[in-house]
Design brief:
The chain is mostly helical and 498 residues long. Helix content is 85%, strand content 0%. The relative contact order is 0.11.
Amino acid sequence: MASLGHNVIANYMGRTWTALLGILFIPVYLSFIGIEAYGLVGFYATLSSVFGILDFGIGSTLNRELARLSADQDSAQSQRDIVRTLEIIYWGIAILAGVIVFLIAPYLANNWIKAQNIEPATVLKAIRFMGIAVALQFPVSLYQGGLMGMQRQILVNCILVFTGTLRSAGAILVLWLISPTVEMFLGWQVVSGIVVTGIFFVAMWRSLPRHTGQALFRWHILNGIWKYAAAISANAIIGISLTQLDKVILSRMLTLKMFAYYSIASTVASAIWMIIVPFNIAVFPRFVQLHEIKQIQELRILFHRSSQVLSVMLLPVCALLIVFSREVLFLWMRDPAVVENCHLIVSFLVLGTMLNGIASIPGYSATAFGWPMLITSTNAIQAVVIIPLIIGMVYWLQGVGAALAWVVLNSTYIIFMVPVYFRHYFREEQNKWYCRDIAAPALAAFPICMFSKLVAPALHTPLAICGWLIVTGIITIIVTGLTLPHVRNLVYPRLDNT
């Protein structure tokens, strides 16, 4: 079994590579299909996220159950049965999702999406490709969850590197060699979806412990896990509503071109998930296992260490993107229209995502301890206030309003959810977490970036901008790391041995 450190590194390599390919190739996609057609690509991303509601907590449940069962050497048949049971349900849901998109495609093409220079027939064809791609790629999250629960994270990320390269580089080749159209781009998503899902299917079943018995669908398995899955599902439904509602409303309100600008800004902010998600995926099974064997002191240490390591990776990058959003967009897109329409949205979206990441360790650990209702109930309460706020802000300020609502939404996790967490777990650690794990590194990262912005000379060339950002980033990371005890303990012994 790989160590936690190896799992974290593997997760970052796989997820970062895949995400970077998607981000770096956006200017290339735009050069082939244009800004308006790229709005359909952004709509596809939104559609895929919205249909994540149909996961019903099954992927996360499989992750947790296999993490728990893997500690028992006599659980081979149980592991295989639970995978088969949830797999059958998941594939049924995937087919349902594809059918739904296919059926509502005419309405979306003619009444929802506001294309100015793209024919309705082209939009309709593109949406139907989206439906097929959503159905084919949907089961991937189930197999990933299972493999992660068995701590086969190195394998998962090797697959992600290969399939991510296939998906992104293949799209470029298809647009270049066959036809530079959005239909061809989405058609390639269908083809690559078949390949990706097939690879994960094989990897899942080959990774399970061998047993002479046949894997079977068993109803009693559902009886044992439905409460946990229901809590995760309720959280996902509310969470997706909160996180995707802005894009859903904007896709209806804005022209396809303006929606493309918001999608580009969202893509920049989504880079922050490359830091948050792989780290939390790596530590989640360890939280589950330590809680299962009642190692309270080890849990406490892991909680603070995880929070501090995440802070030193998250806060400097977010500070740099928030303060230097114009410069980053210029380096990436080299398009003044994109910079002008996106930079403020990028800053707010990154800030909101950063707040979400800060609260993620308490949220993930509570779920690992068997209390997913913490996030679920928080999101349910938020929905009463935040959903009307999102709607109002989007109608008032459009893209900027949606980004501001995202900041408000994620602030509530820090203000309300985290204190509730500490009332149930590690009560005496609350002040340490707020002050030492979060406030100290934040008060190092942001002032450094703001000072750098104030004293920066005139930066007219990409090389000058890139150099200034690199130096600022390095200094910010070093100073932020020095504020954190666990990070210092990790770094100093290695420095002493060199």
